[in-house]
Design a protein that fits this description.
Layout lengths: L6 H39 L1 H26 L1 E2 L2 E2 L2 H37 L3 H7 L6 H12 L3 H32 L3 H9 L2 H42 L5 H11 L5 H18 L2 H27 L7 H15 L1 H20 L4 H7 L8 H6 L7
Antiparallel strand pairs: 1-2
Helix pairs in contact: 2-3, 2-6, 2-13, 3-6, 4-5, 7-8, 8-9, 8-11, 8-13, 9-10, 10-11, 12-13, 13-14
Length: about 375
């Protein structure tokens, strides 16, 4: 029988054990950094495909509950087959997405054409804004603005607009495949985990993500549409050439949290000044649009949203900056849905719950009981 190690032997082996522990922690940290770098590389290199897939998942989640309701609807003894409801959903989604894309492309074309018209007068109009600083500053601003390659930016925007139609077609294809696979999803989930209880728990978490994101998008769409219509009528009142385009751009930019409404307001004021060259009218429309954005974004939006969006403002800013750096403008649109999904997943994983507490608005992320009861997405 081996004798237990003496105190001196234990004292001699403690540094070696500590060195092994430190080496293991260092290796783990290095592997985490390498894995993050590889994932980030893949996110950047495959951004067009991944953005289309993420958008398709959001669109699919928005309509899957409605399709389930349609499939359960009966006209007497006759019910609507699941496959027929799915085909109808894909056809309707395709029509809506193609229509929206056509509207956006037409407005982009209008903006590009009008921008070329005002390109010559824009430098002097913008430089006049700095006239109160003296003629030297005004001349410097004029020279700086005049050197901007407007045609190059317009070509870049036109190229991005061309990719929009390709992305729409790819999103429609992804949505079609998702609808084709959705009836087998529960079976695949159960077989994947090999535990029906675990599969049910994961299904509840995914359902909570879908309901929370759906509610956020529905409220955001309503508020953005109201804001866009109001901005359109204000622009019409001031007889702006780009009234329709400004309304559409405002609607789109309001999906970008925090900074989207600011950019839209400044853009409306800039267009007003370039076209009218009237500081009084510019200040007036800036004030009116600013009040509209403030009331809709900071009063009506929180009232309708309730506690459905529990992500902290700081977390939204971090997500906006990260996904904007990785995926550009599309990443900004997807930053909040991705952050909501991350928050819910972290709140149900014990080891990641501290992250959920930091990302949540009140330090109270969704609990297991709320997920089970289906109250995570309901306003309170």
């Amino acid at each position: 029988m081996n004798a237990p190690p003496t105190r001196s032997e234990r004292r001699d082996t403690e540094p070696a054990r500590k060195a092994l522990t430190d080496r293991g922690a260092l290796q783990t940290g290095a592997l985490v950094i390498i894995a993050f770098a590889v994932v980030l590389f893949l996110l950047v290199q495959a951004q067009f495909l991944l953005i289309s897939l993420a958008t398709a998942i959001v669109v699919f989640s928005l309509t899957s509950d409605a399709i389930n309701f349609i499939a359960r609807f009966r006209l007497g003894p006759v019910g609507i087959p699941n496959w027929l409801a799915s085909i109808a959903a894909v056809a309707l989604i395709s029509a809506i997405l193609l229509t929206l894309t056509s509207i956006i492309l037409s407005q982009v074309n209008t903006v590009l054409t009008t921008t070329l018209t005002y390109a010559e007068s824009a430098p002097s109009a913008i430089a006049a804004l700095f006239s109160f600083l003296g003629p030297d500053i005004q001349t410097a601003v004029f020279d700086a603005v005049r050197t901007v390659d407007v045609s190059g930016y317009l070509r870049s925007i036109a190229g991005q607009a061309g990719n929009l139609m390709q992305g729409t077609v790819l999103v429609i294809l992804f949505v079609g495949f998702l609808f084709g696979e959705r009836i087998w999803f529960s079976t695949k989930l159960t077989n994947f985990f090999g535990d029906e209880a675990q599969a049910e728990r994961v299904g509840r978490i995914m359902g909570s993500i879908i309901h929370r994101v759906n509610y956020y998008l529905l409220v955001k769409t309503f508020v953005s549409a109201v804001t866009g219509v109001m901005v359109y009528f204000v622009a019409k009142l001031f007889a702006l050439d780009l009234a329709g385009a400004l309304g559409v751009i405002t609607f789109i930019l309001n999906y970008i949290p925090n900074i989207g409404s600011i950019v839209a307001t400044v853009l409306v004021a800039l267009v007003t000044y370039v076209q009218l060259a009237d500081p009084t009218a510019t200040i007036a429309i800036f004030a009116v649009v600013g009040v509209i954005q403030f009331l809709n974004g900071n009063v009506i939006d929180p009232i309708l949203m309730g506690r459905a969006l529990r992500v902290s403002t700081f977390g939204i800013i971090i997500s906006l900056a990260f996904w904007g750096a990785v995926w550009g403008i599309p990443g900004m649109f997807l930053s909040v849905p991705i952050m909501v999904a991350l928050l819910i997943v972290c709140s149900h994983v014990p080891g990641l719950r501290p992250i959920a507490i930091l990302l949540s608005r009140e330090g109270l992320p969704e609990t297991e009981a709320e997920t089970r009861a289906g109250t995570g997405a309901a306003p309170r």
